[in-house]
Amino acid sequence: MYDFFTTLLGGLFVLSVIFIWFMIAYQLVLTIAGFFHNWSSAKEKRVIDSMTHFESPRVCILIPAHNEETVIQRTLDAMIKLEYPADRLEILVINDGSSDRTGEIVEAMSKRDRRVRCYNVPKGEGGKGKSRALNLGLKQTDAEVIAVYDADNQPLPDALKYLVAELLLHPDLGAVLGNFRTINKDRTWLTRFVSIETMSFQAILQAGRWAMFKVATLPGTNFVIWKHLVDDLNGWDEDAITEDSELSIRVYMKGYKIKYIPFAVTLEQEPETLPVWAKQRTRWVRGNNYVVTKFLKEITQFQNKFLAFEVLYLLSLYYVFLFAIGVSDLIFILSVTHLVAIPLPGPYTTVWVLAIVLFILEIILVLSYEGMDTPRNFFLVFLMYFTYCQFWIYVVGRAIYLDYIKREKRTWAKTVRFQLEDSTKDQGAAGDKK
Known about the structure:
Elements: H1 2-50, E1 59-65, H2 72-79, E2 89-95, H3 102-112, E3 116-120, H4 130-138, E4 145-148, E5 154-155, H5 159-169, E6 173-182, H6 189-213, E7 223-226, H7 227-232, H8 243-253, E8 257-268, H9 274-295, H10 305-336, H11 348-369, H12 375-386, H13 388-405, H14 423-429
């Protein structure tokens, strides 16, 4: 029995090493591709900057807001500074059943700037999730282009201009997304980790996949999309709690592309405490579970096979990660504590360690072309693997338990906001715009 158990563990260990190496090797290729996309994007930015005129379509910015009095004023202050023709821009805040001063703050702002408008969701209809709020807001405008920003976002003045310009320059695009930076990255150890994670995600999975396969996925904020396309797709799926990834797949299935550009930058808050982070990330994974259930059977029908592979990889990423990291961690602990000895031929432990080293080097490479390859960040990336990355095991495991064992109903839960003591300092800490 003991021999069977050790053989089984040995096999699982080898399998986990293979999965880890596959993910890291694939991400290394994407990291390199992402570097070249960032490099070519600098040229695209110069082209747009040199354009003296283009016909600006009417744009409506949708900002879902449910109890956002802590952040909504800063968000609106940033929105009215956007470099976009005033007569072609509408800023629509969807006051989604707020019980605080959100509506009052927006109404006061609308009296100062005619571009700002507050749409109060009818009583009894509010608090049903971001998708529902976006669909209600969509009905309040006839603009040609829809932009979406979260209520905590502070886009840089030229962000919207760049997003819309890319949409106009490339007829095959249905949507364009930009870059988001962590405005409160220096507040806690957690926000430092999240900042590195978000930069890496965008530089590898967004920039890299666009460079190689012309595939990117919508985030929840800082993107533009043609209104006629959203209308054709019947709006956002109100059962999806990660409405961005769900909509992305339907955009591609409609025959359009989604492009990532790193030079359209917004600053956003990230969770500052572990409970808030865990709640937000659990919602992300549960939303991913919904998308898997909805689209898995349709993967084979995708005309773009690269897209089919990318969607399948993206949808399975959480589960592959859970298996690979969870199993390798378990076997490592059993081996270190001498509870189990796994007599495997071959340098599997060395290969496992090298995978960790390669993971660290990939992130450092990303930070290097973001101008953040400092000794402190090198230490943070090393520490991040053994702490922050391991927290994801709990998050993915809990999401699987809630969805497939407890079968708890998926409901939208907004992320707790934090008061920023010094906005200027935090914006500077978010990094220079590329």
